[in-house]
Structures are given as structure tokens and as C-alpha cells.
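User: quick one, fold this
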Amino acid sequence: RGYRTEDNTSSDVIYTERPISDYQQIFWEAFPAGSGPNDRTTYMFTYIDANQDRPSLASFLETYWDILPEYQNVKLEDLEFLRCLFGFFPTYRDSPLVPPFPRVLQVGDASGIQSPLSFGGFGALSRHLGRLSDAVTEAVEAEALDATSLGYINAYSPGLSSAWLFQKAMSVPVGGRPAPSLINEILGSNFEVMDKLGGKVLRPFLQDVVQFGPLAQAMAGMTVTRPLLVPRIIASTGVLPVLDWTRHFIALGMYDVLFKISNPLKPLVEKIPDKSERFYWKRLLEAWEYGSGNDYK
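Assistant:
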């Protein structure tokens, strides 16, 4: 609390102002808080692994206090801090997580359905809430409570797996030596291309939904406008992660096609008399829909 009202009217999403330092790129998000015209929420975050040679998480919090005044053009002594939240979000590359036991189903962050970019656990849960509540109800009714059947509820999602390369491109491995401006260039080029392509490409991305068409357009646009940036990204992330991402990208396109072919069949699936069979086919159709991002409205 303490921001000037006239300076507290805009928001930042995935904002950067500094180059890479100490094997990490610092990102910011900020927006006016609903508690008052002089109140503002600011987030500082980065993407790192658990390498013990990295600076400590405590030092990262100290960095927040050091550079917040420069970022927001304020003095710390002019602000009243109402709440300070500090922590880390573990993410899993092989997500969503497969249930290991019968009759046990992870939900929310524990299921690994949140984006590895935004860690939007609440947003991911709200996106999937209707699907999950129906699936759990139908699993109980069909007695499909073994680990394999429960695994159909949070099945493989190529949209989610495709997002891992983006996180990889936003992080710096210990010992890596990318150009200090590389991540800023990637972000700047990516958002410039998506902005030109319009809301149908930009809005799903900002809401953690990866779709084949918009992603292909954005990637093609970056290749055309900044062709020399692409080999630099590959050099930074490594060839194997890019190849691994390629198979998820192909799967994303396949899921998109399968959704469009199968969507008219939903009324027929609802009429399948066997509850277990119906449970399986509904989960398969949902996997194609949500895995391709076609649930986005």
C-alpha cells in the first residue's frame, strides 16, 4: 500500500527488465489490488532446477527487496507491506501425474495439471473442475476405481507437455552461457508475433491454453521475423529437448484432429449402456478435447 493512484492503473504479465544473471532470468507480474486504489500486488519469479550450485531461495527473496523500487519506481519506505508470500512450486515433467494406487486420485496442484509456465494451480483446477467432478462421479458409479481407470481422468495432455519447452527456454542451466539478452529477445519476439496475429492466438496463451493452430502460427511467425533467433534457442535448450517437444507438438495436432472428428459422437457415447465402457469413452473424448485446448471458449 502506498502507490500513487495515477500510477496504479495498469498491469504487467511476464514482464522482464533485466538480463540473465546468476543463471536465472527474473520475471515480474503486477496489478492493482482490489483492496484500495493505492494497493498493488507484485510477483517476482524465475524458473530454476534444484542444482545445489544455484543461489539460495533466501537470496532470491533479498533480490526482490533490492530491485522492487527500480521496477515500480517507488521507495520501500513509502510502502506499507500488507502481506509477503514466498515459496517455490515444484513441477513434474511427466505430467499429469498417474495415480499410483486404487481409490486415490490427486487433484489440483498434486495432480500436475497446472501449467509449468504460470504454475496456475487455481486456474487449472477451475478450468478442469466440471470435467473432474463428472469423471469422479462416473468412476464411482461404474466402480472404475482401480489405478488404471483413475489414470484416464488425468490422461496424457500434449498441450501441457508442449509447454515444457517454453519453460526450458525461459530458464538457464548452471554452467550455461547464453547471451544475457536471449530470454528477453525470445519474449519480445514471441509477444510481438502473437500481438500481430490477434486475440485468437494471444488470449489462449495468456490463459495457459496451448492449441495447435495458434502455436503453429506463432512459431512460424517467429521463424519468419527472427530466423536467427531459432538456432540460438536450440543451442540454449539443447537438441534433445527440442526433439522431445516435437513429438508432443505432433501429438497436439493429432489430438486436435481427433477432437474435431469425434465431437459429433458425444451423444452416442452418452447412450452406451455399460457404465464402465461409457466411462472409458467419455474420458477418451475429454482427453482429446482438453489435451488439444479445444475446451477453451
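User: anything notable?
Assistant: Residues 239-262 form the longest helix (24 residues).
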